[in-house]
Structures are given as C-alpha cells and as structure tokens.
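Interim report, section 4.2 (structural modelling).
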Amino acid sequence: MADTLAMGDHGSAGHGPKDKSKRDFLVMLPVAGAVIGAGAIAWPLIDSMNPSGDVLALASTEVDLTPIAEGSGITVVWRGKPIFVRYRTPKEIKEAEDVKLSQLIEPQPDSARVKPGHAQWIVLIGICTHLGCIPLGNKPTDPRGEWGGWYCPCHGSQYDTSGRVRHGPAPLNLWIPPYQFLNNSRIKIG
Amino acid sequence: MRMRIIAALAFLMAPAGGAMAQDAAPLLHSHWSFDGIFGTYDDAAAQRGFQIYSQICSACHSMKYMAYRNLAGIGLSKAQIKAVAAAVTVPGGLDDQGKEIERPGRPSDQFKSPFPNDKAAEAAMGGALPPDQSLLVSARDGGPNYIYSLMQGYVTPPPGVKVPDGHYYNKYFPGHMIAMPPPLTANAVTYADGTKATLAQEAHDVATFLTYTSYPNLDEQHRLGVKVMLFLIFMTIVTYIAKRRIWADAH
Amino acid sequence: MAAGLFKSELKNPVLRWVDTRLPVITLMQKEYGTFPTPRNFNYFWNFGALATVTLLIMIATGVFLAMHYTPNSTMAFASVQHIMRDVNYGWLIRYVHMNGASMFFIVVYIHIYRGLYYGSYKFPRELLWMLGVVILLLMMATAFMGYVLPWGQMSFWGATVITNLFSAIPVVGTTIVQWLWGGFSVGNPTLNRFFSLHYLLPFVIVGVVFLHVVALHITGSNNPLGIDVKGPQDTLPFHPYYTVKDSVGLCVFLAIWAAFVFFMPNLLGDVINNIPANPLHTPADVVPEWYFLPFYAILRSVPNKFMGVMLMFASIGVLFVLPWLDTSPVRSCRFRPIYRILVPLLVVDVFVLGYVGAHHPQGFIILLGRVATAWYFLHFLVFTPLVGLFETPLPLPESIAAPVVRKSPSGGGPIPGGAVAKPMENA
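Predicted structure of the assembly:
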C-alpha cells in the first residue's frame, strides 16, 4: 500500500500543475486512511497480549499479619512474584535506622521503606536485583548475611534488615511493592 | 437460525419446519434496549434481572463464566460488587496444615454454582440438569425473546395432553414438557427500585440480565462498530474518487 | 560487477545493494507494479485480491487467538469464553475470525463463479485453475477443523459426522476413522490434532496461493472478453490502475465484513455451538456451516452411504477435469448464448442444494435434493461437453482495445486465431 505514493507520477501528461496537485491530494487521502486503518487493526491484536481482565482482577493480594512471629517473615505470592513480609525486632529496626546513608550502595533512609507507624513491618519484592534469584533469610534458620537481612545464594548479594543492598553484585535495594495497611494486622498488596 | 440465513440469501422462502420447531408457539417479543446498531443495555433492567437471578434462578442454575467483577458492566459499584461477592464462601485453597479452607468470595471469583458438579445437580433435580445460564441466551433460538416467552409460557395443557410427573406444560418450550417448575410469578421479588413486579416485567428483566451474561461486550461492540463503519464508508468514497481520477486517462 | 549478480536499476544505494543480491524489489515491481494487465477487468476481478487479504487477516487473527486458546477437551470451551470475556478485544478478534471463515468462502465462491463464467479454466490456464481447486479443498479442511475447536455441541457432532464419512471406505474405513480420531470416538486427541492442523494448513494455503499467482503471471490474466492480449494497447500496468480498483472493492468488502462482526456476529453461526460438547447427547439438528450445505445435500441425496460419500468428493473432483470437459473454443460466456444461461442456472442449482442441505431430508426435500444433485453432475459431465460442440458462438471482437465485432459472413464465421482457447482435442 505504501508504494501507492508513487501514483501521482502515472500518465499525468496533458494535465496542468493545478490538476496534478489536486490529484495528489485525492490519491494521498485513501493512502493516509489505509495507514490509519492498518494501525487501528493492529491495536486490538497487540492489546490482546496485555494482561486480560481475569489476570488484572487478581492483581491485589490481602495478607493477614497476625500469624507472623516477631523476628521472622513469610513469603506470599503477588502477581506471580514472591513478596517478603517480615516482622522486625526493635533491634533490627534500630540497626536499619541508624546506618549512615553514605555507607549504602543505593542510599535510602529506612523511613522511606516502611509505612509510618508500622516500622516493625517491612514488605519487599523478594527478587534479588542482580539477576532475579530469590534471597534467603525469611526463616530464622536461613543464612541472613552479615547485615542480618537477606542473603542471595546465587551470587552472594547481601541485604540489610531494611532490604537495602549492602554487598554486591546486586546494584539496587530490594523493591517495595505498592501496599497499604487496611488495619493494624492486615495489608493489601497491589 | 438456519431459516434466517436462507431468508438472508433471499432464496426460496417456504419454511420446511425442521425438528427444532416442534410445534412450539411463536415467541412473544419484547422491546429490547440493546437491539439495533446503537443499542445499549438498560442497566436498571439488568440490575433488576440480576436481583431475580440471585434470589430465584441461582438456587438451581449455575453461571460459571461470569465473575462478580463482571457486574460492573451493568452499573454496580465496586463496593456493591465486593458485598455481593463477600456474601458467598468459596474454596480458598490450602492452609498451612494442607487442609482445604473456605474464604469469603472476592470480586475476582467466578459466580458460585449451586451444586458442586453437574452430576450432583442432576441428582438433586430429579434427573434434569438445569443448564448453565452464562450462555443461555446465546444458546437458544430466539435469544432474549425465548427467555421472555418461556417465563410467561406456563399454561394449562390442552385437553387430552398428559403431562408426565415432574414436568410442566410450557407452550414455548420445544416439545412443551419442561422439567423446570414455573420460576416466576407476579411479585416473586420486591424490586429495590420500586418497579412494579408484574410477570412480564420480571421476564423482561431477567432476559435482559441473561443477555448481558451471554454478550457482556455488546455495548462496546456497538459503539466501536458505528465508528468502524463510518471509517470504512469514508474510505470507500475516497478510494472510489481516487480510482476515478487515476482511471480518467485510461479510457 | 561480479558474475551472477543481478543488474538492479534502483537509484537508492541501500536498496540497490539488496536488490543486486536478492532482486525481490525488482520482482515485486515487475509482478505487481508494471505487470501488464488487461485493461477491461470488471469488478469480478477484485475477488482474487480480496481472497488474499482475507487469508492474511485470518492468519493474523488466528495467531493471536491461539495465544489464548487451550486445545484440550476439558478446557477448550472455557478458554473460548475466556477470549470472549476477559482477553482485551478478544471478542473482536474472535468475531473477525469466526465471520472471516464465511467471508472467505463468499469471496472464493464468487471468484470460482468468475472463472466459470469467463472460462478462466481453459487453455492455457488449466493448471492455474486446478491449483485453485486445491486451495478450495485446503480451505474446506481448515474451516472444518477450525469449527471443531470451540468444542461446542455442533463442533463435536460435526466432527463426529464428517470423520465418519471415511468409514464408508470399504475394508479399511474403520481403521482410518480410528486413526483420524486417535481413539474410539471423537475426543481430546482429535481436538489436539485438529488444532495442530488448523494452525498448519493456512500456511500450506499460502504456499499454494503463491503457486497460483506464479501460474497466473506466466499465462497472464483472463478478461471479461475472454480473448487474448494482442499488444501493449490492450493492457495497463497493474499499479496504480488495479491496485486502486482492488482497493475500492476491498473497502466495500471490509465494510460488509465489519457489519457482520459488529452488528450480527452470530447470524451465520449456530446457537447450539454455545452449549459445551456432550458426547452422550446429539442435538436435534446437526447441520454444517452454510458454506458446506450444498455438499452436505449431495452427500445425503443417495441412500447408499458409500455412494453418497463418493458423490460428494466427486462434486469437487469434477472441477479438476472441467478444463477438459469444456469443448467450446470460446472462453467468455458473453459470446456463448447457451452456456451463459447454463452457468447461472448452476448457481441456482447450488443454492437449491444449499436449501436442501439445511433441511431435514423428508418428502419433497429428498426429491428436490436428488434433482439438484443430478443437475449438478449433468451440468459438468453432459451439458458442458455437448453445448461446447453444438453451440454457435457470437462473433468475437478483434481485440480488447478495439472491441469492434468483425462481421462474419455466415453465422459462425472464422474466429481470429489467437483470440480463442485452443480446444484440447487439437492441442
């Protein structure tokens, strides 16, 4: 269809220049329309590959916090990804808050990684920012690394109790999913 | 359906009465807001129909391809949908001990079926399986008019016709002997919006809702269709003008 | 320039570099740009292009449907509902694909009628025609298997009835049917292989369409007068004259298709297919889709199972030998006073067969079906050869550019040599 652009060149002998420009416009119009039409046909096909209605409907997960013991964490699934929910001890919170930002690979205060008034709860996407492995450290028996948070068995990245990376190769802190407290013992992720 | 195709081909009109007809009476016709190329669902009627479905039909009929979130399409708010879903309990997977648990429904859940499976439904219903209602309108000749008629078709059988036990006479049902007892009567429900619940009104409303469950995208389909048709008509005209121009020097 | 490289005349250096090594651009220009095309096409000549576009749209929508469909007998029906309800624009893609099958057959049937009326199957286009019949057969197989995929009642029972046709083959029939099914009835293995083949065959069709076009570009197109092109004054370059003329037809065609998709998407379907397949309950009316009805009527016109199946396959098979059944030296029905009545009558006959196929075979319908079946075969096997021998054709024009009829001294005067198809007896 694109080569229809050349149409104006054909057999225009005997017509004045004014006539030719009119012809060009009349030929360009359906060509432009066809381009728009092709785009309009392509969009539904492309959009059909986006998450469908039933997948989007499952895009939020509610988590009950009551069964989690202080000092331990659980893993829940949100959008097919592991989410770490950990109940931090006062000592762990203090460690996380007191660290100097200049010592961090990706500087971020602990207060920016928890919800105000709920500093004992840290909620993280449990995927190492290096190459996508799932770090250890939710169970008290797991290795938690030098900084008491999480330890990635794949390449040895270590995270602190705020989920911030303290030792490479991971370049970034563990991501925080969007979530909110429905009440003191229940959160909604997503 | 076949009849309509043949008619559409404008070809030999005699209806040769297939087995489908089975001397059922001609269907009653109601006015449907969703008919025609600009048609859209009447949300109020569909919501009243949903009320009938949840208070009456859902006692026996499943609707497994509908999810509670789909009720947004007939104008229910998020909070209303959440409340409707939370009123049922559904299987909630396994707990930490590996036992199956139940939890309140969520908007993402499919409509809860009244029976665990078809076999159980058949057994409870004396051998007659109540058909799933998510596609009922699209799976019957006559569509909404069939449902509308069937709801009002329970009449005294003509003299000499014997109705077997567990069956009822319905003049719109193919073969007339239907296992479903008359589901609707006047004032079978009290409408939340104060509409007078006559039998015809109830039949109309439930048929509207069931049409929605069969064709949940009908509104969008019509809206998009009008735009696409306008575009293609425009394209036909401009392409034809371009054709005339290009061919002008070939004649 | 190294030996073996193509001498491209393109100006753009990048395009010329490519074209020198792989002259696809020059090829496209030659075959679709400057390709000399008879100047007197009517709109019947749109339908080849329309069929090509339809094939491409069917493949595109089909590929995207396959991303969401599950070819498993316990999940297929629900996965189609998932497409209709949850997938973004899933309903649109499925409606386009579903109605596209009907649109494809409408276009191809008109394309075939064009060939029949204007004698496009005659010398030298026999092989072109036969490749077309192969495409028709592949389309039928593809459409049939596609119809099984939603796994509704009509899908299931259609599959059962059609696969059982092969049981009519003596001795090995049952073995063949079980091989087709992958079991002792239509079931999950059947569905799975039908999905695989339904995905494969359209690409085979693309291949045969390519050969169809190659053959067309060797012989050149036929035209409404049915006479040969004499020189450049009889032709126009394909582009822009026929690209734009095909585009006009395409716009009208897409508008009709869209009208079905948006405003009556289920008109050509069967309501029974919205009930999930139930292997223990046959619906009251097992009818194929409309495009198979004439063949279905031929199948049922004989009370003998084997003969019915044979006759049905023969109804397509006879098209393969049509170039040798037609004895007339003239291609176009415009100059054939008797055959120009018989060809439209064949269309009426096929419509009658379609009507018969849609109804229960009882009483008058049986008789009508037999008469129509007999007429179908008489048309090809008796009327076509005899009319060709005894009909007096009208005088043919000198050329396409100068459609002046030569005065013939006595009725069927001498016909200009190059302007007619050579009868096969003399070839």
